[in-house]
Fold each of these.
Amino acid sequence: MNFTVLGEVQAWKNHQVIPLGGPRIRALLAVLILEADRVVPVERIIRLFWGDEVPVTARNAVQGLVVSLRRSLHVLPDVRLVTRGPGYLLQVDPDQVDVFRFRREVERARTLPDPEAADVLRGALALWRGAPLADIPYESVRLRVGGVLEQELLAAQEMRAEIELRLGKHRDLVPVLARLADEHPVRESLHGLLMLAHYRSGHTADALETFRQLNRRLVTEYGITTGPAMRELHETMLRS
């Protein structure tokens, strides 16, 4: 791959990292990669970098960053950073970008029988080397751009867990889902999967306690209770 954003933002050639320069150049590259083959307006880049406190030199600063990034990427002949209309466009083969390969494999998994789908998802999740845009120090970029990626990762992890539950791997899933549930303490779908993994492993008490903890947290922090799907799952386990 030439570009990675599922972890640190990096450009590669022949398995060697291409020096890019400072964090703002890497942040610009990340934004352009995630909008590959689409024009990213200069105004959007400025808002991401400076928010409401835009210096008068912002536009010139972006132009300078683009010049520096072009200089770094010139060693990749199949990649072009072009000026178009109100902004800039990065032309790159999607197969050379980790996030696009990840998305493609997740979609492919949806079309496959469970054993093959689990293998494909395992490979897709292996593309993640850490939090998206992990080395970008600008919170606005990480939240507005990387936040979408984190949701895609979580959805893929849940999809794999659902498949592996159907394949009878509930015991192996308990520690994995417990860790994810700790990281996302009010995500009902994750807690539902953890409940099922506990229940099918013969640990009904742990499954019911997972529900109680989630419900208590929702009531305490948000003044709401669990949704109908979780309540139905809970009731089914109680009846069983």
Amino acid sequence: MTYRVCFVCTGNICRSPMAEFVFRARVAEAGLEDLVEVDSAGTGGWHEGEGADPRTVAVLRENGYEAEHTARQFEPSWFGRLDLVVALDAGHLRALRRLAPTERDAEKVRLLRSYDPAAGDDLDVPDPYYGGPEGFDACLEMVEAASHGLLAAVRERVEGRAA
């Protein structure tokens, strides 16, 4: 049975696609690509159908990640097929939990940086959209740091399903 993870930010052109591609790479490195499906979406549809921000693409490619992406808006009906919905900041967390059709669905929503023990109380991944390239580099660092803990949590769930 496939474990499905969806990363969500505002417009699905910066943070969530970055998290999607980084985590997909971690899943592949762990040999779990047949068991874990990874995608992303935005809380809004402003950029639906567009590619990722060119700065996101540049940072991903400079660091060895794939970056082919088309933005889309998160739909509440997706909760039924998703196992984990990963929000990139507290605003996304609140918006997604409001969209959740059931309490069980709301419990599927987690903040990405909650999987990074070094993050402390600062669990938001800041939006790099209005800044320069350094914001995209910082975003990637945060995403990469959290992806290891997220992979451990997902691996535990996947192995638990197989048992």
Amino acid sequence: MKTKLGTPAFFCIVALLSGCTPGDVPAPHAKEPAEEVDPGRPAQTAVPPSAQHALGRADTDIAATTSWDAEVRRMPKEDAAYLQAIKERYFGAVAYENEQERRQLEDAGFPSMEEWRQTRMMSDSELQRWAETGDGKAMAFYVDRMMERAAPYLHLRGADDAAYNASPGAGYVLKAYAYSTQVQFAHRSPFTGYLLGAVFSTLAYPQSPESAAAGMMAARDAGDPRAEALLAAYGARHPDMNQETVLAAHRAMKIPE
């Protein structure tokens, strides 16, 4: 499956969800990012593409009956930092308090801790090839990687737009946006709501808390009973959100049943 990045409808969706004007959206001819080697990422281990859907299942099924935070505290420093960043990126929604909640989240389509750790060892190109098969969870992991790759360049926006547009970051943002509009239909999980909220809040310029709130509402509608409390806590931290923008973004982020 090939991703069409330049359609007018795609850019309309981006403008609506991110709260940006068409000029804020990376140009279709943005520089294609080269494969980056992250010195903090563990060495690559080969995982056959045909087995990707089973990532993490064997290990998580025998995981100790503890919380996400307790598991993270037992990890090596680099793994712990990576998983903490994942938790923060998704508003705490990936974390669980006990074994029962862990299983419920995995059954609902949330990536497991072991899946996060294993896909971290995959290269960008491997993740993209997996996403191109149409696997919804693969698309989610690829979108997350593109957000991670884009992060070091986002500070350039508004300060040096020419440098930003010439940087790999513009291409990473473009790919994250493109796949996010597909994962909404390919991975019908409450996690997708949080993913969309993260994409369109952190990659927008200026950043859009309204999009984060809309993603939590989409996750709530898709069946996550914790979303209401997460939304209330987030709203308390961002009391000046434009509610009309929240509702418009929510309509666009709804996950098909």
